[in-house]
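re: ur question from the group chat, yeah i did fold both. here u go
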Amino acid sequence: MRLEQTLFGTTFQNPVLLAAGTCGFGRELADVIDLDRLGGFVTKSVTMEPRAGNPAPRVAELDVGMVNSIGLANPGVERVRSERLPWIASNVRLARVFVSVAGHNEQEYAAVVERLDSEDGFLGFEINLSCPNDTGLAGLPFALEADSTAAVMARCRSVTSRPLLAKLAPNVPDIAVVARAAVDAGADGITLVNTMPALVMHPESGEAALGAGPGGLSGGALRPAGVRCTHRAREAVEVPIVGVGGINCASDAVQYLRAGASLVQVGTASFADPHAGERVVRGLDRLGRRAGLAKVSEWVGAAHSAGRGQ
């Protein structure tokens, strides 16, 4: 089965990427996996200034996934520009790279994009719209409201011609409304979904398990929400969708593809098995050949063309 697809003006050798925050800037995993066997990866979120991140503990493991609160720890845009991107440009050949971008307001997002736009080593930007918004929405994430999502995307669109992905949150009344707003403002694709707000407490003391208190739920428990959001967004927008949330094996990825995703991202599964992404690639090939498919794109949106999954 042909795994490659042409999207965003380039060829992805297969549809499997590593999700933002799970592989650093690639170099962190380069001695463990062959990044060029993947379709690509998304870097850690980059902010204007370096961030140390939230207090420990930052991760609470669950039987259905995990809850984390990392706090966007990253070296800041200048070190990413001078150190991280040059390494990617010199060492990554086949995998397509998106740089995740974060900020407290639309000006910060655009400033990071503008600062990195002229550099080599990556295809485009994934705009992390689940960051706290300090200019509206009482500090809630941009992705929870269509106008705030549009404002960030429009500002980023004004400073780059590279592909832009809008990474959206699952906890909205109708993901279609926010997805349409992102696309109308200039997004070339949609990443669905980011983590779900969650809280883990110690039953004896009642204290939060994470140093920051609440966090984001990821892993298998998030998958049904991610698949549903992907399916709903596919009905509303025509740009490529990147499905993420709870993908542990190839059959999980196929759910996202059938719902309308063209690419998928493996995240939490990589912490338990750094080779999870490569395993999903091999599994997709096996499942596709077993199903008699000539190319992976035959799965994309199949739930809609068949009239199922409503």
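okk and heres the other one u asked abt
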Amino acid sequence: MGLNAELNLRAPLADSRVRWRFVMPTLLSLQIIGMIDKVNVGIVMTYKPFVTYMHLTDHRALAGMLMTLFALSYGVGMPFWGMLIDRWSARKSALIATSAWVVMLLIGAAATNLTQLFISRIGLGLAEAAIWPLGNYLVAQWFPVKERSRASSYWIAGLSIGIALSGVLVPPMLSNLGWRAMFYLLAAINLIPLLLFIFVMRDNPRHSPWVSAYEADLIENGVLEKMEEIPNAKLAAERSVFSNYRFWILTFCNLAGAVLNFGINTWMPSYLTEVRHLSLSGMGYFTAASWILCPLFMYLCGRWSDRLLRRAPFITSGYVAFAVFFYIATLMHSSASALVMEAVAIWGYEVAVTMTFSLLHSLDIRSRMGRSTGVLTGVSNLISAFVPTLMGAVIAQYHSFTGAFLILSGTAIMAALLTAVMIPQRY
């Protein structure tokens, strides 16, 4: 056997796969725990002792402000974190952000009035704004382009896993311990990603003592500029992504995802308990069942997308699926059938969100990924921040959730139509 053939056989054995064994679990934990922190307020709003204590009874728009203020600060913080990560260090940024999460949850636990709780939510939003720029930047640093849909599906699956765990964990915490203890426990859980970034994570493969030369070369040889299969790949390094209209289409797609995320997680728990007459625990179990199957579906679509090196068809299909199935669910009298339709709609939404971030990797180079992700997510979340309050006002005005949920379906359809422009361009 020749020397070159022998090296080709041995090379895969030298692949340390640190990117999958250490980087992905760290990013996954960041997303899961951050998501639990985000959505617990929607579940807490179904807990009558909390609603009474904070004087939120019959004040749905004010209750929606708990999520709106979080989302506003979330959107404001994202471009800041994106620039900081590109210029400074992803790891140091993560340590600051996760430490701040713990402090803000402790403030929420000790709150004696709604103003203090609002301060906690604003601070938590600013701190958690680091999640998306961090995740997308580190995926760009640690994965070749041909693996980035799978990588994105892996860590963004933390959205659905976090929501599912919220449905299982938060209601029993509320029922057995009360809302203050729940916030204290969540603060303790937030130490997990902090410790992982201290002891496990590094900014890029060359900084890690565990990465083999083969793995580092695999990653660096798979950057966007070297991918001839991707349209305009070589031009990405020469021009600003902000001058590319496709970036702004993606920004609207992410806006749609944020609208759906905040809308569903703020008002779906109330809809399930008030309209579908589920108990607090029943609502939690449905939430878990709806979201827990998402990761498998996302991973399968991610593998398919990486094989094709196409992302736009998955975004369009995902948003169409959400709009159709979610609308059908609002028309059904059978609660069981409606819940199944809502679960399928959620799966479509998750695929669309995953592919939005994967497609961004086909538009910008990895050294600028923190900034481009920060702007994309920041603009999206700033606009979508008002949706929970708007939905609360619509629900209060018409004494029905139907109009509020139509806002979600309509937004998904607009995102699907815009993304369809990029399908014939082979993105």
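fwiw on the second one: The chain is about 75% helix and 0% strand. The mean pLDDT is 87. idk if thats what u expected
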